[in-house]
Specification:
Elements: H1 11-22, H2 29-63, H3 69-88
Length: 89
């Protein structure tokens, strides 16, 4: 189904759309605008998927044990010391 709408473009946008049609890249200004809207839709969907993926990573970490910076430094140094001992064996 196609819906007809009236829209406003700046002179620069209209000229650009006309150039795309004249160059044969699109069949009409309507096709240019449809393509542009589809790109916006894809961008919004991608951003939503990225936010959801980030949420899935961060939420379990937020619910986990809090470790202070000092404690994390201590754990890292202990891990490095274990690695050095294991390498010497």
């Amino acid at each position: 189904m196609t819906v007809k709408r009236s829209i406003s473009l700046t002179d620069e946008q209209h000229e650009f759309a006309k150039q795309l049609v004249a160059s044969g890249k699109f069949g009409s200004i309507s096709a240019v605008l449809q393509h542009g809207l589809e790109l916006v839709r894809e961008t919004v969907m991608d951003e939503e998927m990225e936010r959801e993926a980030l949420r899935r990573v961060l939420l379990p970490r937020l619910e986990g044990e809090f470790v202070s910076g000092e404690e994390m430094d201590r754990r890292i140094l202990a891990m490095i010391a274990r690695e050095h001992r294991d390498d010497e064996l």
